From TrEMBL:
Pfam families the UniProt entry points to: Ferritin
Gene Ontology MF, one: DNA binding
Ferritin/DPS domain sequence ranges: 34-173
Protein name, UniProt field: Starvation-inducible DNA-binding protein
Species for this entry: Aurantimonas endophytica
Domain of life: Bacteria
Keywords: DNA-binding
Family indicated by similarity: Belongs to the Dps family.
Lineage: Bacteria, Pseudomonadati, Pseudomonadota, Alphaproteobacteria, Hyphomicrobiales
Length: 174
């Protein structure tokens, strides 16, 4: 069953916006808030997918992978804050609860029965790669809309996701 990716707002059918002196037009800000809501939900989701792996990983290389997952969790948690702050800076209302994140995430649910480090590494790599592809589309959307700051934010996140994918894939490539 496919999830409805429509952002949930205050029941008015529109993106909730606050007055701001931000120079971007209200239409562009509204579109960017919707874009950023999806990435906020995804960032929160991937943050806790990574923590789920951190808590439950087992295997011969346990400590290295356990620490890698903790580092990746910290990195993605920073993305959460950056996305939420950009979203609110342009007049949006960040939807950062667990329930909102489930509704807005672009990712598939993370399996709760994984144990082996390679299984966690492969599954997390899939999630990071899926988000990375969505970030690239978001960069294009922000560029076309004329919002260079959202474009820059997503570009930085994309660079970080690529590096995270490299760190995880290096465990099972070769």
């Amino acid at each position: 069953m496919a999830k409805d990716k429509t952002p949930k707002n205050a029941g008015n059918g529109k993106t909730q916006m606050h007055k701001t002196m931000n120079p971007i037009s209200e239409n562009i800000r509204g579109a960017m808030v919707e874009l950023l809501q999806a990435h906020l939900g995804t960032a929160i989701d991937i943050t806790y997918q990574t923590k789920q792996a951190h808590w439950n990983v087992k295997g011969m290389n346990f400590i290295a992978v356990h620490e890698l997952f903790d580092d990746l969790h910290d990195l993605t948690e920073g993305y959460v804050d950056d996305i939420a702050e950009r979203l609110t800076a342009i007049g949006g209302q960040a939807h950062g609860t667990v329930q909102a994140s489930v509704q807005n995430s672009l990712l598939d649910a993370y399996p709760l029965d994984l144990v082996k480090s390679e299984d966690h590494l492969r599954r997390l790599t899939e999630s990071y790669a899926k988000w990375s592809a969505a970030v690239e589309k978001g960069i294009e959307e922000a560029s076309e809309a004329g919002d260079p700051l959202t474009e820059d934010l997503l570009t930085g996140i994309g660079r970080g996701l690529d590096k995270s994918i490299y760190f995880m894939e290096s465990h099972f490539q070769g």
